[in-house]
Amino acid sequence: MTVLVLGASGTTGSRLARQLIEHDIPVRRAGRSPSADVRFDWTDPVTFAPAVREVHAVYLVAPLGVADPEPIMTPFLVEAQRAGVQRVALLSSSAIPVGGIGARLADFVPGWTILRPTWFATNFTGDHLHARSARAEGEIVSATEDGRVPFIDPDDIAAVARHVLTGLEAPRRDLVLTGPEPLTFDDVAAELTTHTGRDVRHRRISVTDLSARLQQDGIPAPFADLLAGMDAAIAQGAEDRTTSVVEEITGRPPRSFRSFLTR
Ligand SMILES: NC(=O)c1ccc[n+]([C@@H]2O[C@H](COP(=O)([O-])OP(=O)(O)OC[C@H]3O[C@@H](n4cnc5c(N)ncnc54)[C@H](OP(=O)(O)O)[C@@H]3O)[C@@H](O)[C@H]2O)c1
To answer: Mean pLDDT score of the chain, rounded to an integer?
Structure first.
């Protein structure tokens, strides 16, 4: 019944691993750090077979910053199929078009799910650019204008992943995961002001200026353009909706941005 968690040191993988352990489900944490249970590196295919050996289910976090992950992920899925893996939950995004490797998961495993979360609430905490600029300059900077996003608590993504990987049946469909209410970046700035006790405002910039800002922060130009374009999509309303999927799958409603900040 072992669940292999890729990206186990990351935002969602670490939460999923913790939740599985809390439910007494055997976990194998994969990654490149010495603290991982098994070494796993997308750039090193010899690490694939040992990672999936005697594994029932896999939480699949794609290689980061790769425009087309399919050529890298296909050999991994071949190994997973060979090892008899029964379930896969692929972490995708509501902002990524349906298709690609996700559309081929059923070729490799009988029980598959594609998780399509909206933007993470954690993007405003820790070392993320928004959090750093909120701390250093008292502002979050975006090209989202008045666009709204139903930010999701990554603990809720992990809870859905645990259910679909270990429950009676895999959904065999795409699940769009959202928090309970769409917020503008002005709303987020107001919440950050309330919760940190210091003024945080939302500064609106153009898509071009946002891409330049992201590149100054070390993000390669093509990926910076992609991310800035996602802000433009938010401005046009692409993320302005909620779904009931977290509650349908876990039996409890998703947590709000406010309760996330409070915790
Ligand atoms: N942030 C958002 O708002 C948002 C919204 C929707 C979807 N997403 C999606 O979330 C995904 C990222 O997931 P996350 O936030 O849970 O992870 P994360 O916090 O970004 O951490 C990345 C993980 O990937 C692992 N990793 C990086 N390079 C690797 C490599 N070469 N081989 C093996 N593992 C590697 C890292 O592990 P080690 O360094 O330990 O190996 C780490 O655990 C992205 O695909 C993104 O599209 C994000």
So the answer is: 96
